[in-house]
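As noted in the main text, all predictions were made from sequence alone. Below is one such record, for Major facilitator superfamily (MFS) profile domain-containing protein.
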Amino acid sequence: MERGGGGDEGQFNKYALACAVVASMVSIIFGYDTGVMSGAMIFIKEELGISDTQQEVLAGILNICALVGSLAAGRISDYVGRRYTISMASILFMLGAILMGYGPNYAILMTGRCVAGVGVGFALMIAPVYSAEISSAKSRGLLTSLPELCIGIGILLGYILNYVFGKFLPLKLGWRLMLGVAAVPSLALAIGILFMPESPRWLVMRGHLPKAKKVLLKISNTEQEAENRFNDIKLAAGIGDENNSLAAKENQNGKSVWKELLLHPSPPVRWMLITAVGIHFFEHATGIEAVMLYSPRIFRKAGVTSKEHLLLATIGVGLTKITFLVIASFLLDRVGRRKLLLVSLGGMVCALAVLGFSLTMVEGSPEQRLAWGLTLSIVATYTFVAFFNIGLGPVTWVYSSEIFPLRLRAQGASIGVAVNRVMNATVSMSFISIYKAITIGGAFFMFSGISIVAWLFFFFLMPETKGKALEEMEMVFTRKSHRDVAAAGTQNNTR
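Prediction:
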């Protein structure tokens, strides 16, 4: 599978990188929308006078709508292609940004947020899948982690523009520009993505073999590598030289995909689905959205009082996120997904426990202890963000987009994204209520406990996929194959 045939094949392909970068731009828009809302809510509450419950709904409705978008995007991307699905996501972001930027009242604001939410579902499903399908096994970790890195860049841009618009523009105009400016890059991307090549694996699945071969020649370093990848993809899609028309037709019709995924999955597919659902569940169940969306509230609870200082502190969160996402991008193909994930969860457990402790002490301590509590809370928050983004954050999207076989990849990834959005919405819409019920320190102790469960889940259920071709994943997720390979290795060693 994706066999080596020459010294050039291990080199990085710049055209494939360019394709992944352009596809990942849609994630910058999503990240910006997430980051900018954390600061914009301060000003929205001041002008529109919305309640805490309305803030929770405004924060979380994006993810409820993204659930719908992600489930629809899987089937749509199989019919119209990966490129057009990215373009559709960009158009939805543009419409949502225009409505939110207009935002004369809470109802219009919510409508724009819902439209953007459907775009989020499209973007989160399709960007990693497209990046995975154009990359080779040796560079897939880096290319498939680019959407998550772009989300981080978008979040940081949102935090920075929060500060700039909030400081230099009047209240009515400031938050509307924060939300509406995303319409411009959305339109540019919707057009620009059409100049990129389609996924060769989708082209094979649809029976467009000459077009797929042409794309593979561009994203491979040698003709031999392109030929090897082409043959492996055809084999995985069940397409041979004699029966490619029939197999392609079956793939186009999408026969039995949901049945094979949910009703009668084979043991490897069942294992893939459990792992994909689990990693998406724990990405948000461990509390990252509480920190990214409500960081101004956390810092206010810790003792930061002015709006300017609150927004500056959140910029630090964004910088930390990007720094460690960049580090993770280069480690994924060297260290591996599994090791990074386990280290990440271990660090998150400790950081969340310290954050819970420091916030509890600040709330219950006399005035003179606030200084050290504030410092410890900020350090713990940044440490949590760092550990999350060196492992769990990027690995979630890399892993879930690479493990499913071609015939199930889009729908399998869409199920993972749906779970991801449900958990994101759950945390977004309940965090304020949770910390009011059990204190803000208690909320982070709870997240620390969930992180321990997540570490155990990944330790026992997650196989390593580093360096494996997409067409090999069913073998990776077959326990019997592992035993056979180990037994064969033992026999060879004794000969």
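The chain has a mean pLDDT of 83. Residues 14-48 form the longest helix (35 residues). These features were considered when defining construct boundaries for the mutagenesis experiments described in Section 2.9.
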